[in-house]
Request: fold
Amino acid sequence: MDELSEAHLLRDSERNLGSRETSQEIGKSVDLLVVLGQGPVKPLILNSDLDSAMKQKWENFKIDPLHNTEPDFRVLEGKKYLLQLEGLNESQIQDKMIEWQKLGRFGLNRWGRQNALSAGFALFSGYTDRILLSGGKTIPSWGKEKLPPQRIDAWPSEAELMADIIKRRFGPMYQEKYGRPIDSSIIIEDGSTNTLENFANSLNSDEGKDMLNGMKKTGVLSADFHVPRAEDIAYLFAPGGNFKEGDSAQKILEQRIEGKNRASYKKILNWMTDPSNTDLRARTSMEQVWHGALKDPELLTYWLGYIGIVEDPRVLQSTVRRLNLDKTLKGHATDAFSRVGLDFSSIAAVDLIKMDSAEFRQITDKLKVLTTKEYRAMPEIQK
Reply:
């Protein structure tokens, strides 16, 4: 099957989101839009790399790429790419695979691609002044074992792949409209491997102070099923922030689809939010588990350690005060802090904002230990 026919419905419709004929304004809403990745990054592999199970998954997917389960890998197909590998030695082939792995259309799953397209449209349309793309160098566990070391060493982040899609789809139009490169409005945060880290690391960026001060309105954009938890984490980490209601990538894209390509992309969006979509149901079920963990006192260390990543003392100060005022949470907090050598009552009694920076870092360094597997309480996942 050649590149044109493989997954054509998804790919060609996504291309159309960047065309001029579908351009429209949707109005200014936020100053900064934090865009969450949807990993892991899919390894790009050759047909010869497939085992029998993977080959079956890939063939099933190609029969109906919209409705069938998307594999956590992408097979390189199409003459455009395969002809470039002819006559190359193994090292040269891996160099080309490294190059192509950095293309968002290969590395991102459909949810991640839609987040990127939605973010690009939000930026181009004037919905936001800037976007902060947050997502690290995630990879399926099997990929770490199967891929050669040079591939792993050069692994792209979800944020980089989202930026690639945005620049390819919207870069020229943005340059023409605003007179500056689209890169000038894109911030990359690529040190995160989960949603809690997304917000903790984003708050450590230059834009983080704006979020915490609440001086500029901030939005959070993610896949439809991910929005509720993302909203709660945003308020958990930045309670003083000026956050608007979370944005669903799919709902924003609904405002983009008009003209002759509306029917094909509307078909995709309808399926991506259809309750009968098995992929969506599975992801929604998982989200409910993770979301519930944020509110379960027994699972306080599911998220608490990530507060220690944030460098601004106002975040830990706010968290400690909230935990101290809740009798149920206070007991769990006392236990959690003591497990990493911290006295919760003593910390709750001082002004962390006025504390010496070195002393504050000693506290946060210990608190971050709670993010490790040994200490972090995780919700039970039903098999």
